[in-house]
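Handout for the seminar on molecular recognition.
Each group receives one record of this type.
Step one: identify the two inputs.
Step two: read the structure output and locate the region that could contact adenosine-5'-triphosphate.
Step three: write two sentences on what you found, then compare them with the reference statements printed after the record.
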Amino acid sequence: MLFSKLYEFFTDVFVLEESARKNFFIQRLDPRVKIIAAFTGIICVSLIRNLLIFMVILSAALLSAAASRISLKDFIFRSLGFTVLFTTVISIPLLFTTPGRVLAETSIIGLTVKVTWDGVYNAAALVLRVWTALTLLNLLVMSTSFDKITAALSALRAPRLFTVIFDLTLKYIFIMVQEAMRVSRAQEARRLWKPGFIERVKSVIPVASNILLRSHVKANNIYNAMLARGFNGGYRSLQSLKIRGGDLLYLLFSIGLFSFLVLLDKSLTFTVIF
Amino acid sequence: MEPILEVKNLFFKYPKTDKGLFNVNMTVYRGECVGIIGPNGAGKSTLLLHFNGLLKPQSGFVLVKGLNTLNEKNISRIRREVGLVFQDPNDQILKNIVEEEVAYGLLNSGLSLDEISVKVNDALKTVGLKDYNKRVTFHLSYGEKKKLSIASILVMNPDILVLDEPTSNLDPGGVEDLTNIIRDLNRNGKTIIIATHDMDFAAELFNRCYIIDEGRIICEGGVETVLTNISLLREHRLKPPTVTQVFTGLPGFGKLPVRVGEAVELLKRRLE
Ligand SMILES: Nc1ncnc2c1ncn2[C@@H]1O[C@H](COP(=O)(O)OP(=O)(O)OP(=O)(O)O)[C@@H](O)[C@H]1O
Ligand SMILES: [Mg+2]
């Protein structure tokens, strides 16, 4: 079950690409434009310090997702999930280590622990910054099939090696999960009781090397299949990449908006600064 | 006749095993439909992978239209001439959506999207997967995947079509359709090479065949001769086609038939 859940998730993300195959606002944009806009956004996010401005960007992303009929539940939880994963450990110490106005104070075994307002602000800014960046990335991924992303990367003259690695890594991850699911299913078919979670994980560990090896052989075969059909390092998608008026408008608008927000952030020097 | 594919003294050993191909020689002529017949593990798939340079001979050589697969410069030309359908469709399917899978090779070749779309639909129709365009490849049944993998090679219109056990996992109707598709392609001038141990299929289709076992060519000849050599076939874990087996048990027919049609004719004549 553990692996079939994981498999389901990966199938959703990599295969069905349900939200990316819809045809609304963001999906219709040229993938190259989306990639440039997302990366401009991420760079800006790294320059911004004001909590309100993060909120503005998050709301804009959320609105765009809603306008593109992307499942908001998936949209929010995916980026939030990864944010929690990446930032909890790093942001908690900030609460205690930033000097400033004290919010709360306790003493544990003789040690005084102070949480400062500035600490809370800094921790919140870190979490929001990561969350905003991941949201922008998520907007790109959930509105664009991987096929188009690779085609766009290739068209944007991203280093060929990078595009190939991106493409093959995605395939490899998917193959590995698929193999893990097959192995787990094969084990289950030969087991007479219903195993618990721990037992399930334990039972897969001894065959992990088998899974890795199988994935490796499989990935190799798939690479051969690509070669056999004339793969030459280029990526073309069945959908043509064409920049239209709307794409240019979106590009100019998003670059303009992000630049404006960065400038705004610089001019707002109130309260604490990260 | 003009040789289109030549294998000369091919030697290939998988690293750290004693498995591989040992001094394999064969010649396929333009327009032929040739079988490579052998039991499991005989080396059929290994041999086919040499035909478009995915495996390279360790000694000896393979020539496709006179081009040596050992020469890297020839490879892209060879890959265009030789369409290889893998034994396991799961190894071959690269894309998530059926039409994208079929279009993959064409996209690499630089055709326009309109041309591609027409060809994709034609190929899907040929293998009996009409209207499957938007389906998810991972969720197809094995037989459907098999047909898809054939379509995605057919669409590239290679001169030489190489199929590895194309009938495994196809339903009887599917085998019949495939037989007809291959026969048509062959009539239209395609050279066809098929590895199989489906003897009935082999008898219906091939002009000529090679028996291979333990990495060596055991014999070569017309299907009427090779597939009626019962003791030789048994020695290599193979059997003659079903009709041939039936006629082996019947005295007085002289020549053994290998195809159902021939057998029917023989019986009719006897009954008249
Ligand atoms: N990558 C590999 N490494 C080592 N040995 C291999 C490898 N691939 C195949 N072999 C061995 O080489 C021999 C020939 O394999 P091959 O796949 O060519 O057989 P085949 O005739 O296609 O069999 P089947 O009818 O089962 O498909 C087998 O004994 C197999 O175990
Ligand atoms: Mg094989």
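Reference statements: The mean pLDDT of chain B is 92. The two ends of chain B are 41 Å apart (CA to CA).
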